[in-house]
Amino acid sequence: xxxxxxxxxxxxxxxxxxxxxxxxxxxxxxxxxxxxxxxxxxxxxxxxxxxxxxxxxxxxxxxxxxxxxxxxxxxxxxxxxxxxxxxxxxxxxxxxxxxxxxxxxxxxxxxxxxxxxxxxxxxxxxxxxxxxxxxxxxxxxxxxxxxxxxxxxxxxxxxxxxxxxxxxxxxxxxxxxxxxxxxxxxxxxxxxxxxxxxxxxxxxxxxxxxxxxxxxxxxxxxxxxxxxxxxxxxxxxxxxxxxxxxxxxxxxxxxxxxxxxxxxxxxxxxxxxxxxxxxxxxxxxxxxxxxxxxxxxxxxxxxxxxxxxxxxxxxxxxxxxxxxxxxxxxxxxxxxxxxxxxxxxxxxxxxxxxxxxxxxxxxxxxxxx
Length: 369
What we know:
It is found in: Cell inner membrane; Cell membrane. α4 links the parallel β1 and β2 (74-80). Helix content is 65%, strand content 6%. α10 (217-245) packs across α11 and α14 (321-335) packs antiparallel against α15 (339-368). It has helices spanning 2-17, 20-30, 32-40, 59-70, 86-91, 105-110, 126-146, 173-204, 206-211, 217-245, 254-278, 282-298, 311-316, 321-335, 339-368; strands at residues 48-54, 74-80, 97-101, 118-121.
């Protein structure tokens, strides 16, 4: 049996190495695409055009406007002392936010009366509006810290929360996105390569020749799995260079990362083998693979937080291997966690992978009889 498995492994490795297109695509997904998507898919607000209606025209109001304009989040493009043009600014998309400073702002602020500022946000792009609102609150708080009221109103003392963000103090989305893109690359390569390989054998008729030999279904799946797992683990090394270029900290163990990546690949390859078991052509395999990959991606928490999903989808997300791999990547890179903290995710990946392999083997045997 060992000689049969070694022979199959040698055949799969040679076929993989003889296909430079596949090797190039794998390297591209782990490097160039990770960089491109990380740079493009950002939730941070930078240089959002904003307008100001300054009805106070005081030293304090000018300082507040200056704080907004000097930040990387906002660029001042429109300014007026009356609110009549605000509607036109927002309708024409010339601004994404309008800051309205009321008359008497400086007087009321110095008297400790906490004058209300009005923020008008274009909610067409809800994520941008939400981020802009947070930035605006932070800049208003900075203004308060720079120019505290001369009079503190009686009874205004209150408990103050001092926030401290661990693991990602800058709250940079690049840190999350680059790890997400590398995890997605691993899922796509792990699923597509074995699926295409098995379906290609079906189209050429060589799968029937293999099945009339003493080779068993488990041995065939093993030979299809090992080269893909090894290829994805090796592809992590150029991906680590990309991660370093984005200044993402690596606080965990490299050995733990490689072992966990191999465990994750077992479930990704199992999904690809299952796809190949129920399809008969490359076209069918590609369509079915994408049909399954999109839910796996959306339910993993890489696009939206799992906690924001409806309860049913939160439960379905437990079936997504990408969810556990993302938790592993974030734990190893950002928190420096190891086996003691990550073994539940590893067990979940093994459970998902074993179930998919069992389903694929049952379907494959029934169809090849």
